[in-house]
């Protein structure tokens, strides 16, 4: 599983929204970008992905912005990571030894333990 800069920004944007009444009011992307010190355009692309899968809602216009969905507490950290980065493996064995390779087995077990842990951690655990 990959954990990129984009995922880091997504998680920090969600944390900012949680701490700043993002479940009650819309927060403009410019405010989020300024608070995180990142590009508005880049952050907007990240937040659009989260909106497409229903983690947050988005609205345009003068009073537009992003808002947490009512069930934000139940969103897993794993869902955020895979929404932004997909389900790429971090611990890939570059050799094609198949399932019999003991190194590959250890890496698969380690990654599965990480995935299982991240599926248990939810946005509510950030506060």
What does this protein structure show overall?
The protein is mainly alpha-helical and 127 residues long. The protein contains 5 helices and 2 strands. It has helices spanning 5-19, 29-36, 40-52, 77-85, 102-120, and strands at residues 56-59, 65-68. The two termini are 24 Å apart. The mean pLDDT is 90.
What is this structure, in a nutshell?
By secondary structure, the chain is mainly alpha-helical.
Q: Whole-number average pLDDT? A: 90
Strand ordering within the main sheet: 1-2
DSSP, total strands:
2
Total count of helical runs of at least 4 residues: 5
Structural class, please? mainly alpha
Order of SSEs, N→C? Answer: HHHEEHH
List keywords for this structure.
single chain, 127 residues, mainly alpha, two-stranded antiparallel ribbon, 2 strands, elongated
């Amino acid at each position: 599983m990959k954990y990129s800069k984009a995922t880091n920004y997504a998680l920090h944007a969600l944390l900012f929204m949680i701490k700043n009444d993002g479940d009650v009011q819309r927060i403009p992307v410019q405010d989020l970008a300024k608070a995180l010190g990142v590009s508005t355009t880049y952050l907007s692309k990240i937040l659009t992905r989260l909106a497409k899968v229903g983690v947050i809602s988005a609205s345009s216009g003068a009073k537009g912005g992003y808002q947490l969905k009512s069930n934000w507490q139940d969103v897993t950290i794993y869902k955020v990571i895979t929404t932004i980065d997909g389900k790429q493996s971090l611990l890939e064995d570059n050799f094609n030894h198949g399932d019999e390779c003991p190194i590959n087995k250890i890496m698969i077990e380690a990654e599965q333990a990480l995935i299982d842990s991240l599926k248990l951690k939810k946005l509510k655990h950030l506060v």
